[in-house]
Amino acid sequence: MLIAQISDLHMRPRGKPAIRIVETNMFAARAVAALMALDPRPDAVLVTGDVVNNGTPDEYETAHQVLRRLPMPVYAVPGNHDDRENFRQGLRSFPGVVAHPRFVQYAVEDYPLRLIGLDTHIPQSSAGELCEERLSWFEKTLATERGKPTLVFMHHPPFDCGIRHMDKIRLIEGAERLEAIVRANPQVKALAFGHHHRPIETLFGGALASIAPGVAHQVELDLRPGAADGRIAMEPPAYRLWRWDGERLVSHMAYVERFAGPYPFIED
User: Fold this and answer.
1) Which one, 196, 206, 229, 231, has least CB within 10 Å?
2) 3-state secondary structure of 242
3) Burial of residue 4 (number of CB atoms within 10 Å: 0-12, 13-18, 19+)
4) For strand 238-244 and strand 232-233, is the pairing parallel, antiparallel, or unpaired?
């Protein structure tokens, strides 16, 4: 089974860039084209939040037009730049988006690898949370299929990565309880996040915790303890591929753009 993860699309109304300089709609369309060109094609696509930039209905209309080009199922969860109600309305045709009465979180049972999406959105905040209701739902959902390998996906990472301005707006509430739940459920093989616009990995509750880069702009890599507020960097847009072979879940990072090559290995 092959799963693609794209994150932090930050789509805008048609013709408007994000942060005044980033043509995010163009980058999102290029990411969709890159996924469609993969051989083999992914069985599913995860979109780990910040689908749009300002959470407005016209942005979701643009996002829907781009994402619906994908021929495989698209599973999305909201990020801090999203608006939960506009997300639910604008992307309601995507599976799971309106499955829960309050939050955008759901389980996907159609594959050898179970997929669980969690909603970490806090209205009017850049940080994330998993409240008692969301965490209880997660714990109960895991309990129904303890024997099935699971990939969990959400927007906000629950750990410090050393980029200080991003650590301030990670998953603030519920991180410790989330880790305890993951540790108690070894069927959780990995957790997939967005938000930080960089490829970052660690262990969390005994499982792989993996942050995807953005498919548009990245966050500057700045690990200085006293670093000021962050800046964006126009590093190459990229995404993650998750490969499940029935025993092992492997994560690859792949670039959206095409570069020179490939060339054959030739001995000198």
Assistant:
1) 229
2) strand
3) buried
4) unpaired
Q: Are 45 and 35 in contact (CB under 8 A)?
A: yes
Half-sphere exposure of 125 (CA within 13 A, CB side): 14
How is residue 74 written in tokens?
A: 């698209």
* 3 state DSSP class of 224: coil
pLDDT mean across residues, the chain: 96
Residue count (the chain): 268
- How many C-beta atoms surround the C-beta of residue 38 within 10 A? 12
pLDDT value at 21 more than 80? no
Do 154 and 112 contact (CB within 8 A), yes or no? no
Q: DSSP class of residue 127?
A: S
- Residues 146-179 pLDDT 10s: 999 999 999 999 999 999 999 999 999 999 999 9
Residues near 267 by beta carbon (within 8 Å), at least 6 away in sequence: none
d(CA 207, CA 183): 8
pTM given for the model: 0.96
195: left (phi over 0), alpha (psi -120 to 50) or beta: left
The predicted pLDDT at position 61 comes to 96
Judged by DSSP in three states, 152 sits in strand
Burial class (CB in 10 A: 0-12, 13-18, 19+), 209: buried
243, 238, 138: which is closest to 189 by C-alpha?
A: 243
> What region does 119 belong to: left with phi over 0, alpha with psi -120 to 50, or beta?
beta
